[in-house]
Structure formats: structure tokens, C-alpha cells
Write the C-alpha cells for this entry.
Amino acid sequence: MNSVIPVTALTVTLAVTAFAGPEAPTGFDNQTNGVVDQGTHLLDLGQFDEVEQVQNGLGPLYNAQSCRECHQNPVPGAATQVTELRVGHTGRDGHFQTPAIPIAHGTVVISGRSLVNDRAICPEIQERVPETETVHATRRAVNLLGDGFVEAVPDQALVDIGRQQCKASNGRICGEWLVVPIVEAPGQVGVGRFGWKDQQASLLSFSANAYLNEIGITNPLFPNEITTLCNTAPEPNDMRGPDGLFDIDRVTRFIRATKAPAPDPQPSPQVTRGSELFDRVGCGTCHVRSLTTAAAGTKIDGGTYVVPAAMGSVTFHPYSDFLLHDVGTGDGIVQAGPEEYGGAVFQMMATYLSQQPLQFTQNKIRTAPLWGVRLQPRLMHDGASLTLRDAILRHQGEGAVETQNFQRLSKQDQDALIAFLSAL
């Protein structure tokens, strides 16, 4: 069935999945999940791994030379411990403001973006954080494996989770959703689920944004360089290939065809006990075990993508609600501006975006999916927690009661819960 939620002058069409379907395939094996054939998947993997050079558009400001550089442990597409830097300051009105960063000896100022790139193709444009910017945040690169299933979850399913949390907890835990522009579908919006602030709703929007802001490669959705200084490559950098696809299309197709992260195949009785405690303590309220995708043939991403047969009505286990929560670790950054959606799309949607109370995202972070967490030695969005116990104890705010519940457990039961997490 379909339902419509009014959002000011715009609407978001939301499909509701009524039943759980077959299990999503899992594995760290570079094999397709069935959305495309294996040969196509390996070709797309090659695009994901490709190391960009200055002559084909790298920079001028950038963080990495390939997608794989920030998403590789143990296979391309997985999470790593690579971090990015975001900064800004608090204005007189108490609201977050993006920085003004001078480059080229102060002759040019980079503004309108919280991201500060770590690298530059020539020394005079290297970004440095001014003393005026007192809000600092680092964020780990996110896992991308299985995100095709995440993309195919109906918007309404995420909205319903947030509402159910709020009702069941009498307002103590209320996952919030951000409705954002879908860059490839001008004028269309969707419930954000990608990025630490849920700033993107589709994988193509996410990939195109990363190509520009993380690698410096201009593309059809983000055609303008952050700065033209030192830039010698012809524009746009991402050109349509003989098959009619752009590089961002191939990378997006690669992500959509990845399997979900696989849990440890050898669970122990202690892990089984820990799984029961995970729910008893209340961790599963936000770290939702299971979600189900929309039916095959459902149009999503503003009508630009149709859920394929291999992904329709599939159940998967991300251990996340993909909603925004305040658990006491907020980084102070508000993220919904030109850098996320491109200048033209942002201007077109500026009135709509201004009507959302975006400042609520300042101290909220997307619930970290726990699938594959056993392969992440640095935890939480900032990588500042080095043990699972530390990560649990950092949860305050909406997660304070759950932290207290964990602390009340016996040492044996605490160890069992941690063993369970260590098996994901």
C-alpha cells in the first residue's frame, strides 16, 4: 500500500512493507548479491578501486584518491578507520555556522561547507582551520556493504520506527528523520539514511557527493569545483563511457550489489546469551536488528530507481534504525547545505530546507549500524572509543538508561553482551 506524508509544499511517497521476506546474502567475498551478474560486479569493483590522478580530475582539494581508500576493511566497500574533518562555529543566535577558510594567501575564501579537505594538489591552496572555527569534529568513513538493502527500505518504515520508539519510551527515545533532496531527482525528497547526519537519501546522491567533496571529481550531479585554483583537468571530470554510464553510476551500482556484512559464523553459548541481553538491556531499541526492503518493482529515490527482483522484500540485519539520536556524543555540526546537494539543487530547495528545523541535528548522530562491528577497532562516529565497553559507556542522553542497565549486569553478563557484539 502507499501513503503520503505532507512535507510543507512537497510530499514524500512512502511504501509500507507488510511482511518479512527471504534473508539478504552476507559475506566478505567481493561477490554480487544478485542485483547484477558477477562479471559486471567485478568491473564496477574496478571503478570503486580506481586511483584518480590530477590529469583526470583529482582535487584541487581532496581527501582520498579512490573510494576504496576510505572504505576497505576487509574488502572494498567496508568501513575503515580513515576519518574526515569538519569544523565551524556557533553564531550569536546559538546556531551552527559553516567556516570561512582562506586559501592562496587569503585571496580566496572557501565557504558554505563544514568539510575541510586534508589534501591539495598544490601547496598554496591547502586548507587550514582558522582560530575562529571552534567547533571541531572528526568522523570515520562509514561501511557501504549492504547499503543497497538500506536504500530499498521504505521511507515509511523508518518513520514508523521513530514514532514507535517515542511512544514506547514516553518520549525518552525518539529517533528523528531528516527529509532531504534527492539530487538526481530535482524537486523530489526522501528520508535521509546515508552519512553520519542522514544527509543523503539515495546511494547515487551519496556517491556523487563523495566524488566531489572527498576526491574532487566533478560529475553531472556536482559539476562545480570547490575551487578552480590549480585546476588543470577539463570539466566535467566524470565523463559518460561507451556504455552510457558515468563513473558515479558504476560506483553506485557496485554498492547496490554488495552483500551485507557477515556475522561470525561460529557463535558460542556466551554469544547466544549476549544476544538475549542485548534486547533486555534495551540496545535493540535504536540498534534495530532487522529491516525489510520494499517489494520488487517499487519506485524509490524520487522515481529514478526501481527495486530489483534480487532486492525486493528482503530481510537484513543492520542493527540500526538509521535515525538521528542524541546519545551525548553529538559533534555540533549541522549538515544540510550546498555542499551536500550541489548549488543548483540547494538553491531550488532552499525555501523547503529553511522550513525544516535543521538545527536539531547539531548534537544528533545517525545510529551506528553494528553489522561488521567486530572488524572496527575504533568505534562510535569519531573513532574515539577503542573498546566495545567504552562505546557502551559513552551512551548518555537518549541512551543513558540503557547504559545504566548494562552497568547493573553482572560481570559475566556484561562479558556475554560484549561477546555478542564481538561476533557481529
